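Annual report, structural modelling task.

Input specification for the 3-acetylpyridine adenine dinucleotide complex:
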Amino acid sequence: MSEQTHQTDYDVLVVGAGFSGLYAVYRFREAGLTVQGFERAEDVGGVWHWNRYPGAKCDSESIYYNFTFSEDIYRKWTWSSRFASQKEILCYLHFVAEELDLKKHFQFQREVVSAFYDDENELWKVHFSDDVTVTAKYFIAATGCLSKANVPPISGIDQFEGEWYHTGDWPVDEVDFKDQDVAVIGTGSSGVQAIPVIAKEAKSLTVFQRTPQYAVPANNYVYEHDYIDSVKKDRSSIRELMYSTRLGMPTDRREVSALDETKEQREIIYEHAWNKGGFVFPTAYNDLLISEESNATAANFIRNKIRSTVQNEDVAEQLCPEYYYAAKRPIFDSGYYETFNQPNVSLVDVKQEPIEVLTKTGIQTTKTLYDFDKIVFATGYDGITGSLFKMNIHGRSGQSLQEHWQNGETVQTYLGVATDDFPNFFMITGPQSPSVLMNMPVAIEQHVDFITDLIMNAREKGSTNVEVVQAAVSNWSNECKTIADYTLYVKTDSWYTGTNIENRTSRFPIFVAGFPIFKQICDQVIQNDFEGFVMS
Ligand code: N01
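The model returned the following structure:
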């Protein structure tokens, strides 16, 4: 038993039972710490537990969208197709939890309502919705970057007498759209995946679009047995490849500027990438997110594809986006634009015709009252900081994280792992790490390994408190901003910048220089005896 349990209930308290919570609990347990996980849902899965909406799939390739730390686990699991469905990924996470015997370390249906750092006793007091308080030395947010669903503040939601759902908070029981008049609000990754599937079933589907989106085919296919067998035998090279590529998975990124090739050459490249599907398209050239001119070549190509796919010219024009391609999260579809050729599908542009209110029977815009049986909010998340703020975490000075970061407008961390004034509080894939710009399981493994090493290093030195120094936080934050300012990300409204949330000023709390550089920096920090951290 740990020497610290006389002071606290546990050494480590982990919130979340998705990819990051599972791996964190595993690593802390293996390191000999007492660890307890808490999860709001009734079982493991994290976002893959909640995102059960029709058509939900991953768009990282399956053989890379998994843990690679264990040869045994990598070999035992068999993916069915290039892009796995939500159901399959959830099964995978249950499989991992059972293989590693992790479920016994979690308490489910336990939601954190607040957490306070007790400076005098140097411990965290974490309060749950059932009025129970748990103490721990280290408090770990494994809460994911996209866990706080954003239901826009449209008045009248309570009046609506039909049923409404959010894609990120989908019920466990199947939702039946057969013979129903359905609305989908929102056309991000979730909406674009759900719309073609719902359209097949519903009597009518009306899509409420605020910003048209660039969607590139996913091109999913079933894996062949021989391929999967060879991949399983090669776990260590797959892992090496994932750890050495910018996105944490190979994408065939071409190290060529779009402007260094002729229009004809670009057409061939884009057509090839379009047919290959997935992340091959946004990585077709290396400057699509830096040069406005290069970006326009990709954007034009996709707009032409939309125009040649959607039969009604007015609808096609309404579906054509104008923002910088891939500066919002790239979207991969399976028949999204084709769906608008179906007679039961219509499009409402909410910039032309804003939604005013939900009524008893449906949606009232400035022009029309539309009646619906079911409304699907595919309106995304309060990303990156939402799930952290929701826990109402208070640091040494008593200030909440939300106040500390001015409601998310001045997010400041060191390596996305920690922030000043919050000792022994660590975030997995937190703000200002590469997180959402890469393949998450790789980012998670690296971040959890880093945090485990940090804690164990401190304990070896006899220190129980690990805190990041303010200078390290401000230097890292400045560095992240300087790099991001070179890109088109900061010139585009998105959930990356937080501007999808009403009244939030733009920020960009992500490290954009890619995973290998980030890992190299973290490794250097470790080599330099965890410089930037104070162990007391
Ligand atoms: O959310 P989003 P998402 N009235 O924020 C619109 C991951 N993910 O759940 O663009 C009307 O992208 C909003 O409009 P606008 C992935 O990282 C992965 O789809 O803000 N519309 C937008 O169209 C992804 O990026 C996978 O103008 C409103 C939509 O709702 C992230 O999750 C699958 C509105 C929200 O799009 C989030 O995707 C699914 C309002 N008041 C998700 N408010 C895969 O792996 C918002 N919108 C494939």
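Residues 57-59, 146, 152, 167, 185-191, 193, 208, 210-211, 329, 350, 378-381, 436, 495, 500 surround 3-acetylpyridine adenine dinucleotide (CB under 6 Å).
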